[in-house]
Amino acid sequence: MASDDTAAQNGGPISRRLVLGRFATASAVSGTFLLSSTAFARATKHAAAASPKQGPRPPAPLVMLDPGHGGKDPGAIGVSGTYEKHVALATARELKRQLEIGGRYRVELTRARDVFIPLDDRVGLAQRRGAALFVSMHADAMPDDPSVRGASVYTLANAASDAQTAALAKRENSADRFLGAAFHDASPDVAKILASLVRQETRAGSARIALALVHSLDRSLPMLPNAARHAGFQVLKAADIPSVLVEMGFMSNGKDEAALRQEGHRKLVAEAMKRAVDGWFLATGRAIVADGRTG
Ligand SMILES: [Zn+2]
């Protein structure tokens, strides 16, 4: 499939890079959109580098994995005392290891150890580093109903899709309660339309990775009913990076918690997520195979 740049040059669908290149002076941080100025620099640099046939090839795309919680924020605490933050980090490390095999991606973690990182900083790091994909990794809890188990995958919604997901979004966003009100709006009217265009493309990419994850995880794990869900997660609000949040199971369910404590099970989860990431990059034409060709 053609890359973004090729499509733009051939008069194909309007691409994020083209849009960004034309409006490269604006930096939009407006309301629900977080669009970094470095994203513009990155986009124009890529656009300039990609048009001629010669010149250095772009580096392998960067996948930013985001293990939820950390440090003073344990996340959900399992029925036998397991902390979500530890499960999230262990699985993210395993997924990083698997994704790095073959050299098709660069992979970074928003946190590589047990430290607290505010939600906005996680998004900001992904933007500064020029991530092509952002995957937040969690394990949920529903103490009132320990029978509920299974994995689910979330993309950003302005309004949560149901009461359950609204409550979940509240719990995950409350990680910032340790910091106070860190999120404040600046709303320059410049680039509102631009931000909207970029967000539309990003949302399409987010929806594709979410569906890929649901299909892939469904082959390996119990899933929640209607496992592709929407919620207002703060950490999914990068306007310019397709972003998804995976709840790998329920810490409040004995079977899910026991499974997530096991290295073998976490490998299965990571393998399923890797299949989805591979498929997503292939479908978007942005995968770089080991010898540097676009795959
Ligand atoms: Zn969580």
Topology:
Blueprint: H1 4-9, H2 16-22, E1 29-30, E2 33-34, H3 37-50, E3 62-67, H4 84-100, E4 106-109, H5 119-128, E5 133-140, E6 151-156, H6 163-173, H7 192-218, E7 223-231, E8 243-250, H8 254-260, H9 263-284
Parallel strand pairs: 3-4, 3-5, 5-8, 6-7
Antiparallel strand pairs: 1-2, 6-8
Helix pairs in contact: 2-3, 4-9, 7-9
What does this entry look like structurally?
The structure is a single chain. With 295 residues, the protein is α/β, with parallel strands linked by helices. It has one domain (59-182, 197-284): 3-Layer(aba) Sandwich (Aminopeptidase). The protein contains nine helices and eight strands. It has helices at 4-9, 16-22, 37-50, 84-100, 119-128, 163-173, 192-218, 254-260, 263-284; strands at residues 29-30, 33-34, 62-67, 106-109, 133-140, 151-156, 223-231, 243-250. It has a six-stranded mixed beta sheet, with helices on both faces. Strands 1-2 form a two-stranded antiparallel ribbon. A hairpin with a 2-residue loop joins strand 1 and strand 2. Helix 4 (84-100) packs across helix 9 and helix 7 (192-218) crosses helix 9. The longest helix has 27 residues, at 192-218. The chain is globular and about 60 Å long. The N and C termini lie close together (9 Å). The structure holds zinc ion.
